[in-house]
């Protein structure tokens, strides 16, 4: 199914631009598992050349010795949660680089420990973040996507094709994408449920 034909633009934007997806899998014994994953949305127009199904996919990489991969092999039905938790751009949730940080002053750290700042001089980062969150614009919707997962044969042309796209959109996740024991998985998108902050729900099949 092509999502561009069935899903509204705001849902597609969420799927295309979210950094991570929460992936839920389930074992044959009905034991659930959730993992935070890098991913790439692949519209049918960008699917592998031999794929004539006209489906849109979510592509991700996983190690073959993980619980999620074992679950997918035995039970390919999965669920994915997309949510951009914060849309405000001014929150100080990113850590500073070393070049942006000054040299620690031992007199400002307990017992001369340069790794721990004293609380009077450095207020709680968590408290500061919560204060910022109180004034931030939060995202108004989240989407749950149900799909059917299929592992792609490692080192095949299809696997290498999707691996290159996944790496292009997630250059910071090379350790997960290029690992020797990595398997590329594609999830055929089958349905979506969107809920906003007012608890309004829309379902798309």
TrEMBL record:
It holds the Pfam family PNPOx_N. GO terms for cellular component: cytoplasm; nucleus. Residues 96-106 have a biased composition (Polar residues). InterPro entries: PMP_oxidase-like, Pyridox_Oxase_N, Split_barrel_FMN-bd. Residues 96-117 are annotated as: Disordered. It comes from the Eukaryota. Residues 11-92 form the Pyridoxamine 5'-phosphate oxidase N-terminal domain. PANTHER family: PYRIDOXAMINE 5'-PHOSPHATE OXIDASE YLR456W HOMOLOG-RELATED. This is Pyridoxamine 5'-phosphate oxidase N-terminal domain-containing protein. It comes from Naumovozyma castellii (Yeast).
């Amino acid at each position: 199914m092509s999502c561009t034909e069935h899903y509204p633009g705001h849902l597609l934007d969420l799927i295309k631009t979210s950094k991570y997806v929460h992936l839920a899998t389930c074992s044959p014994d009905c034991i659930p598992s959730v993992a935070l994953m890098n991913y790439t949305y692949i519209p049918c127009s960008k699917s592998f050349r031999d794929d004539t199904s006209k489906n849109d996919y979510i592509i991700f990489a996983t190690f073959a010795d993980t619980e999620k991969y074992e679950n997918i092999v035995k039970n390919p039905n999965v669920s994915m949660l997309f949510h951009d938790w914060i849309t405000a751009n001014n929150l100080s949730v990113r850590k500073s680089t070393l070049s942006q940080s000054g040299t620690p002053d031992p007199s400002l750290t307990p017992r001369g420990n340069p790794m721990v700042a004293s609380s009077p001089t450095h207020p709680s980062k968590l408290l500061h973040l919560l204060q910022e969150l109180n004034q931030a614009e939060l995202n108004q919707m989240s989407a749950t996507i149900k799909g059917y997962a299929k592992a792609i044969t490692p080192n095949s042309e299809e696997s290498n094709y999707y691996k290159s796209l996944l790496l292009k959109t997630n250059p910071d996740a090379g350790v997960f994408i290029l690992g020797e024991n990595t398997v590329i998985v594609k999830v055929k998108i089958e349905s979506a449920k969107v809920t906003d902050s007012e608890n309004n729900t829309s379902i798309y099949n």
